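Predict the holo structure. Ligand: glutathione.
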Amino acid sequence: MPEIILHHYPQSPVSEKVRVVLGMKDLDWRSVEIPRLPPKPDLMPLTGGYRLTPVMQAGADVYCDSQCIIRELERRFPEPTLFPGGSAGMAWGVSRWTDGALFEETIALVFGDAGRDMPAAFAADRGPLYFGPGYDMAALKAALPETLAKLRAQLGWMESRLATGRAFMLGAQPGLPDALCYYLIWFIRGRYSKGPEFLAQFEHLCAWEERVQAIGHGRPADMTAAEALDIARDTRPATPERADPDDPQGLKPGEPVEIAAEQVEGAPPVAGRILSVGAQEIAVLREDPRVGEVAVHFPRVGYRVLRV
Ligand SMILES: N[C@@H](CCC(=O)N[C@@H](CS)C(=O)NCC(=O)O)C(=O)O
């Protein structure tokens, strides 16, 4: 089995979610640190233009978006499951809240709080990425009390779930909902200047946070970007061709398409030929001068697939 390689950087909250999943599964994995800001010249040969963090690689298969990464980790390493009690459908539904509205409000808190203290290049990149081209730092700052009120209400939902005496969100065993909630708490604690004071009001949440933190990240070992690219070059994609006669868009293997993240307005899409199509995921084959043929996987939710 090829090694699991995570392309990420330490401060990335969405990467922290995946690192916790790697810990829950107690995996050995390789860690490639990528730049926090574009350009990302050693990532682009793998993804064909997708720039978000993290990205996972296994040989010449590349998984974009934490949703796709986590689904693939569960497929390759089913035990221990991320979905104790058959909770997969519910947990994925929860992810649309944590990774959608709750993620945006958490980012609004951290940005509104940091304001002018945020490095200019970082603000110039992330501002439009998260809040659109007309983003307004002063407005985010002015909205801080309202943002905190919304977050307090939603963290209260986590608190009441844990107040029932469960060690983890689903019961005695950790699962995906723990990773989904934890990465946002980790981000608030570490990056909001009053994070520890704000979180202190949630007694059960703070105790649970320590339990999730104790799970760790599995066993990462550093790898250089060049080594990861060499592995992709020296391997063939392992994903089999798969058709879906019921695909609502009628997409078929072999068709040329472009795939774009809805989250990143105006970002260049990733172009390739469909290799595998299914209800949850689509994979395209693309050629790159540095790595040869790679299969790039995306979730169907949150991504647009356009015929070209
Ligand atoms: N839907 C994506 C969101 C990923 C995301 O927004 N990641 C942030 C970092 S935590 C990012 O890519 N920031 C810009 C960058 O790293 O260049 C996922 O779940 O993986």
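DSSP finds eleven helices and ten strands in the chain. The first helix runs from residue 13 to 24.
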